[in-house]
């Protein structure tokens, strides 16, 4: 009994030391993904060290569910998948439960209760990991939606809108409105279309190939050009830049 009590006390002290070390001395890596991955496995190791804490395996499963959102980003970094609202609601529910448990234990515990303090610390680490996964998931989605505005313009196709939630569509509209106001204010009210010159142009005219049947295309001087699939044209860059972003035309460089 004395041996078990000493070992139990050792695991509690070891877990507290690991928590303090990873909280105040995080690993420094040039690759943020590697740092986050190492911190995640540090948390898993901490749960194994703190096996005496009840429901530690449950917290590990909850963190794994939040990590699945980050793994989805890695699997398709340039493609916006449908928002996993049910998964996010479940993660938030688990976070509220852990926060309530911590608040209850902190208010009712004594300063000398080492085991309870360790439990509170482990829950706090789990909360931090779950919060970071949620924020990374939402931030990545906003970056993809912002890139859509620059690539496809202010009007998105129904397929792209289907992958966005209602709140994300509202954010896209506000971002488009703010971007349009900024472009119209450049040059003392003259305005500048930043969508046309995302990269510095090397020539005024470029050769393009039509990737699909588009139909009639009228240039600024009134000339009407029929854009059919696999047809090539020599057009002014400023007039066909938008069609290139939309995937209708392809810039022929060779």
UniProtKB/TrEMBL annotation:
GO terms for cellular component: GINS complex
What the entry lists under InterPro entries is as follows: GINS_A, GINS_bundle-like_dom_sf, GINS_Psf1, PSF1_C
Indicate yes or no for the key word NADP: no
Q: Where in the cell is it found?
A: Nucleus
What GO biological process terms does the UniProt entry carry, in alphabetical order? DNA replication
User: Which PANTHER family does this UniProt record tie to the protein?
Assistant: DNA REPLICATION COMPLEX GINS PROTEIN PSF1, PARTNER OF SLD5
Quaternary structure note: Component of the GINS complex.
Can you name this protein? DNA replication complex GINS protein PSF1
């Amino acid at each position: 009994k004395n041996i078990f009590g000493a070992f139990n006390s050792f695991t509690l002290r070891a877990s507290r030391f690991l928590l303090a070390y990873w909280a105040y001395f995080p690993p420094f890596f040039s690759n943020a993904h590697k740092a986050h991955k190492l911190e995640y496995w540090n948390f898993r190791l901490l749960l194994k060290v703190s096996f005496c804490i009840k429901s530690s395996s449950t917290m590990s499963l909850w963190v794994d569910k939040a990590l699945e959102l980050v793994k989805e980003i890695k699997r398709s970094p340039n493609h916006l998948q449908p928002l996993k609202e049910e998964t996010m609601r479940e993660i938030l529910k688990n976070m509220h439960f852990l926060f309530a448990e911590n608040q209850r234990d902190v208010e009712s515990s004594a300063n000398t209760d080492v085991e309870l303090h360790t439990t509170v610390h482990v829950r706090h680490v789990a909360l931090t990991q779950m919060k970071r996964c949620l924020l990374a998931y939402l931030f990545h989605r906003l970056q993809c939606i912002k890139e859509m505005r620059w690539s496809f313009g202010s009007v998105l196709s129904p397929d792209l809108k289907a992958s966005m939630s209602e709140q994300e569509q509202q954010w896209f509209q506000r971002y488009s409105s703010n971007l349009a106001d900024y472009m119209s204010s450049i040059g003392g009210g003259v305005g500048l279309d930043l969508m046309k010159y995302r990269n510095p142009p090397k020539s005024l005219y470029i050769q393009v190939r039509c990737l699909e049947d588009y139909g009639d295309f009228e240039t600024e001087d009134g000339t009407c050009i029929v854009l059919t699939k696999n047809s090539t044209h020599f057009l002014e860059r400023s007039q066909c830049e938008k069609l290139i972003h939309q995937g209708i035309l392809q810039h022929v460089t060779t």
